[in-house]
Amino acid sequence: MNGFQKTRRISAVLSAAIVNAAILLSSAPALASPQPRSEEWWFSAWEIERKVWPLTRGQGVVVALIDSGVEARLPDLKGAVLPGRGYDGASRADGRADDDTELGGHGTAMAALIAGQGHGTGMVGIAPRSRILPISAALHNYDQTIRYAVDHGAKVINFSTSTSASRCPDDVQESIAYAVQHDVVVVAAAGNDGFLSESGNSPANCPGVLGVGAVDAYLGIWEKSTPGDNIMVAAPGVAVGSIGKRGLFSRNNNGTSQATALTSGVVALMRARFPRMPAREVVQRILATAKDVGPKGWDKTSGYGAIIPYLALTETISRTASNPVYDRFDQVRPDNVVKPPPTTMPADRPRFDTLSEKGSDNRIRIGIFALLAAVCLGAGVMITRNFRHRVGRRDQG
Questions:
Q1: Residue 134's closest CA among 171, 175, 91, 182?
Q2: Of 40, 67, 336, 355, which has the maximum CB count within 10 A?
Q3: 257 catalytic, yes or no?
Q4: What percent of the chain clears pLDDT 90, i.e. is strictly above it?
Q5: Contact 259/242 with Cβ under 8 angstroms?
Q6: pTM for the full model?
Q7: CA distance 197 to 230
Q8: At 115, is the pLDDT very low, low, confident or very high (cuts 50, 70, 90)?
Q9: Could you tell me which residues are beta bridge partners of residue 10?
Q10: Of residues 257, 264, 302, 356, which has the active-site annotation?
Q11: What are phi and psi for residue 211, nearest 5 degrees?
Q12: Active site located where (predicted)?
């Protein structure tokens, strides 16, 4: 076999290697998607698997859960719970144990609604690629917990707990201002007092907080959802099952706690999809695309209506759309008004092709293929040069 034939064979082998690598990369099965339990009716109601997950699953977003702690050892939450903080004698200093003795693991249940992995009972969260920052805390240190969450990378803070207060406590309002300054969305439960009280729960009644009421699968307002001027949206909160700290699934739980956790999950999805979108704009989109329920227009139990995640992710929204969550804050704390950071993606023209997680996966695959092709090509050039060099020396001799 002469030198020319050897060179052709080497080139053919390298070409075949590149083609085979491309086939392997293109045909490699994607990570299996977790399948929600049949009881998780909000998945179909919100078209999570069909419309939302192809756009975003919450990749990289940290959701601070200020609650009773989270049982991080459970299979359904394996890998989804970061080290956090335990206050006031919590059983673990990092918050990764649930100290709830009354409801069977309230914090764990909320975490699973947001970021459940589906590996144990099959409980799946709506933002399974987000991560939970667990903060086990008593009601009196909300101000500390908010600051801790902000300082440790949270982009969403979830309060599925509340304390009775006719107005927002000053120290909590100061911490809310700190969160607003740092572009963090704070979501809080309206409460489960029904019509016995109104706007009487903090931090939901704090300006700058997205207050959440509860609706059922038929968009009916839950009778025990606490009304108030602070309520801005509603989310599934009736017959919303989840797991407790023992890792067992419990059906038919009701509460604005569940509605709030699911709302925080939606915010996580949006923040992953639009990483440069300011918190104000995220909330604005949620409010502008909510489906009106109950009395026509805004009302004290469902706010501007039931959240529709897909529309919040895709709908064209005017930059001048109302945003009472932040308008209230700006009126109360004008000294803390922070100009939203500039964004390269207008709210009314979302660039899904460049910001989607699916697009990121494709870019990673293309990069791997390009690197492999470059290596193979480089090897071919070196071999060819070496062969030509040896042939040249023989001819000269």
A1: 91
A2: 67
A3: yes
A4: 68
A5: no
A6: 0.78
A7: 13
A8: very high
A9: none
A10: 257
A11: -80, 135
A12: 67, 106, 257
